[in-house]
Amino acid sequence: MPVAPATPAAELARLVGPEQVIVDSSITDSYVRDWTGRFVGSTPAVVRPRATDEVATVLAWCHEHGVAVVPQGGNTGLVGGGVPLEGEVVLSLRGLRSISLPEGDDRRLLAGAGATLADVGDEAARRGRAYAVDLAARATATVGGMVATNAGGLHVLRWGGTRQQLVGVEAVLADGRVLSTLRGLDKDNTGYDLPQLLCGSEGTLAVVTAALVRLRPAVRRRQVCMVGFDSVETAVDAALACCDEVPSLSAVELVLHGGVALVMDEFGLPAPLATPATAYLVIELVRTHGPATTTLSDDDLVAELASVVDRSPGVGDVAVAPSDAAAQRLWQYRELHTDAINRVGVPHKLDVTFPAGALAAAVEELPAVVGAVAPRAQVWMFGHVGDGNLHVNVTGVSAGDEAVDEAVLRYVAERGGSISAEHGIGRAKARWLHLNRSQVELDTFAAIKGALDPHRILNPNVLLR
Ligand SMILES: Cc1cc2nc3c(=O)[nH]c(=O)nc-3n(C[C@H](O)[C@H](O)[C@H](O)COP(=O)(O)OP(=O)(O)OC[C@H]3O[C@@H](n4cnc5c(N)ncnc54)[C@H](O)[C@@H]3O)c2cc1C
Q: Which residue, by CA, sits nearest to atom 53 of ligand 1?
């Protein structure tokens, strides 16, 4: 195992040019601090390659000299996986931003790792198509980060997460060799599926430099509604009924009274419905065929939803967005949760999944689970309820106090859930990976890591510590 040199910055600057290597702490500050402010580290250098061959040069040198690297995209990750908590070099992929379409194929798009989700969505729209994954950090989250975390988002129940969009990747291995699987075939059973292995690997196996992704049909009509419920249980039941019975469903998101009130306070928004509710669903319905309309009002879509909502118990007020602007206003009550919670304090973010039958009870029970170990903590919950995915946010606990994380993640695992629904394990949950993964699985993970990154230079403190 090589011994890392004390000052890698000068050598890295020689390799890729001094303008691509930042050491000034007033600039590196935003690269060493995560989006929540919970994870703050330090780095000897931020390296910003402009092309795949520069990534390869940097990694080959780091491999040879045993220099640990943290790949970073938009730095919107929520589990401390993209920041240098042990003094690693930061490899920022934001400079690899090109987007192109494969010749003669308008159903695929080749995006550089640094292209943002918004860049990809805009380019897809220019081609009359859509990229299926969408999430609130769309202006900043990058393709590389989304592949590395297998990002989910708002439309998983309709189109799947990043894995289901991924056709191929270009990536640089730890030793600097470039792996390219960009043939773009729908059927290709020629051995191991390497793009799928890298998807969700959180920068521990290779650095993604580009991704070939599927484009879906563009949305022609869309309807957004917000429905109030008298309990979490009735809201969850209605959400599951929508998943089963509403073919045009594209998103169904759960928010709670406390979170909606917080968003209203923090952003000066009016109440979404005339009568406050205990729980709310934000529901989006889409059609990808038929004529496009300039207004969102679509009576057929509303009727499809009404057929389920009308017979759901516990329904309160309903708001139906009559315009695009009104739809965006309704979405704010869900999408501004993350920002609003960050304003209350540094959150512990525990993104988890439950089996459908355990979700409503978990929402009721988790405040007491947290209260037992942190009586002064506040719990904020919301999530992609159609996927059984709950974002449990806890404020009022110091960043390093892990008692709350331990209590919540054990509760989840005991109920057959996953301790990471979509954000990954990162640094935040590495201690608890064994709750969901057997020793045989962990040994297999370690064998794969050892084969691809024998000197452990790629995100060595993430996922498999
Ligand atoms: C407001 C808000 C809303 C969010 N909503 C969702 C949501 O609905 N669904 C969801 O899944 N996530 C969500 N997230 C989390 C986050 O946006 C996603 O995890 C996203 O995929 C991270 O992309 P990024 O470019 O910011 O990655 P970063 O934060 O920079 O990195 C994340 C991880 O990927 C690794 N990585 C980054 N780039 C590369 C690369 N090129 N090659 C190899 N490894 C790399 C990093 O080392 C790190 O481990 C949200 C975050 C915010 C702030």
A: 76
Ligand 1: centre distance to CA 246 (Å): 30
Note the pLDDT tens digit of each residue in 242-298. Answer: 999 999 999 999 999 999 999 999 999 999 999 999 999 999 999 887 766 655 566
Full-prediction pTM beyond 0.90? Answer: yes
Residue 420 Cα to ligand 1 midpoint, Å, equals: 13
The pLDDT value given to residue 113: 98
Regarding the beta carbon of 74 and ligand 1, being less than 6 Å apart is answered yes
pLDDT at residue 305, as a whole number: 85
75: phi > 0 → left, psi -120 to 50 → alpha, else beta; which? left
Rg of the Cα atoms in the chain: 22
Cβ of 112 closer than 6 Å to ligand 1, yes or no, is: no
- For residue 199, the CA-to-ligand 1 centroid distance in Å is 12
- Hunting for tokens 């910003």 — which residue is that? 48
Instruction: Round to whole Å and give the CA distance between 43 and 30.
Output: 11
How far is 134 from 221, CA to CA, in rounded Å? 17
Distance 151 CA to ligand 1 centre (A): 7
pLDDT digits (tens, 9 = 90+) for 18-43: 999 999 999 999 999 999 999 999 99
> Distance between CA 297 and CA 111 in Å, rounded?
34
Q: What is the Cα–Cα distance from 457 to 29, expressed in whole angstroms?
A: 22
Q: How many helices (H) and strands (E) does the chain have?
A: 16, 18
Q: What is the average per-residue pLDDT within 446-465? A: 96
Is residue 155 a contact partner of residue 132, using CB atoms and an 8 Å limit? Answer: yes
Whether residue 465 has pLDDT greater than 80: no
In whole angstroms, give the CA distance from residue 59 to residue 337.
Answer: 38
For 345, residues 6+ apart whose C-beta sits below 8 A from its C-beta are 395, 396
Provide the pLDDT for residue 291.
Answer: 67
Question: Smallest Cα–Cα separation from 131: which of 104, 148, 149, 154?
Answer: 154
Domains, in order of start, for the chain: 8-94 (3.30.43.10), 99-217 (3.30.465.10), 221-337 (3.30.70.2190), 345-423 (3.30.70.2740)
CA-CA distance, 349 to 190, in Å (whole number)?
39
Q: Is 49 in the pocket of ligand 1 (CB under 6 A)?
A: no
SS3 state of residue 210:
strand
Where b means 16+ CB within 10 Å and e means fewer, 151-166 reads bbbbbbbbbebbbebb
Whether the CB of 202 sits within 6 Å of ligand 1: yes
Distance 254 CA to ligand 1 centre (A): 22
